[in-house]
Amino acid sequence: MLTKGDDFPLHQTSEPVAFAGTDRNFYDRYFFNGYSPHGSVFFAAAMGFYPQLGIVDAAFCVLIDGVQHNLRASRRSTGERLDLAVGPIAISIDAPLERVTLRIAPNDGPLVAELSFTGRHFPIEEPRFIRRNGTRLFMDYTRMTQNGRWAGWLSAGGQRITVGDGWTGTRDRSWGIRPVGAAEPQPPPQGNFNQFFWLWTPCNFGHSSLFFHSNDDGEGSPWNRRAVIVGDAGENGGGETHFDAATFALDWQVGSRRVAAQRTDLGGGRSLTLSPTGPVFAMSGLGYTHPVWGHGFDHGPDLAVAHDIMAAGERSWGNPLAMHIQALVTAELTDGGTTHYGVGVLEQLFVGPHAPTGLTGLLDPAS
User: Fold this and answer.
1) What residue segments make up the domains of the chain, in order of their start?
2) pLDDT, tens digit, for every residue of 47-62?
3) What is the pLDDT of residues 80-100, one digit of tens each?
4) Are 329 and 345 in contact (CB under 8 A)?
5) What is the dihedral of CA 193, 327, 71, 92, to 10 degrees?
6) Cβ(98)–Cβ(116) under 8 Å?
7) pLDDT of residue 133
8) Fold of 26-181+194-357
């Protein structure tokens, strides 16, 4: 089956682009978030391709006035990998690795938008994520991440908002293998999700971006960790400074697994302090861990589009749809006697134990 992608140098195997290897869990995904200068508005979007499952899905969400508005869409794929639209949600690659536009067409729900993202720097490539559960491959994927500035507009519930000076955020592209679609009929004996510790903190500063993430096992040993500061393009050549021995410590919100503060020692005399500042965004709005709109689920032969809202109480600790979250944070980067102030997000998903931070059980609150 030949598609538009076959006219581009994108092939990874001897097959046409439509055929992505042999693993039914192969995926190819876009993710975006953005926020106003003072955090009063937060939005996020995603689009995922699942070639082996024959599904493409997308979502767009806006958090405003304490309410999270979710738009979701799903369709069956014809194998065409360059059709970047799912119902009202569309992406255009204006300049690869530099500028992308996200469009949300008028629909039956309250969300409409036209938003352009311009990268601040060349994307960083995170270390390849490879994880097995026993003998079963759980994850094997690559991700590139980029901070940028947003321009355009969005409308939520009839309230039109101009997006411009001071609006920043992060986008990523990831592709490879992770659990998608319907649950496997025979999971590994120890289960697919008995322990998972994920912390991701992209931050925007005045002339640079900082990225820190950590995937740890139950003993606290990182199986994937990265800390890097990237200068803006044109600022010191936009070079990357990597920190190979970064460590972190967390304070907890009482009676939960929600982070109250994060302190990261980058090494080399630099440290980062993150403090959540506002309402949290539930990643289930984008399909993550959602029981109905999970990634790669088949919603039938016709285009499926749905809308819902999540009030603040529905995004509190204890709701399974709000275990995986992003929280807006203020960021303080200390370099010797100088402190730089910025903004960013702290994404967390903590399942099972993590000895250094005191997590025990499957979802027991932190002590």
Assistant:
1) 26-181+194-357
2) 999 999 999 999 999 9
3) 889 999 999 999 999 999 999
4) yes
5) -100
6) no
7) 87
8) AttH-like fold (2.40.370)
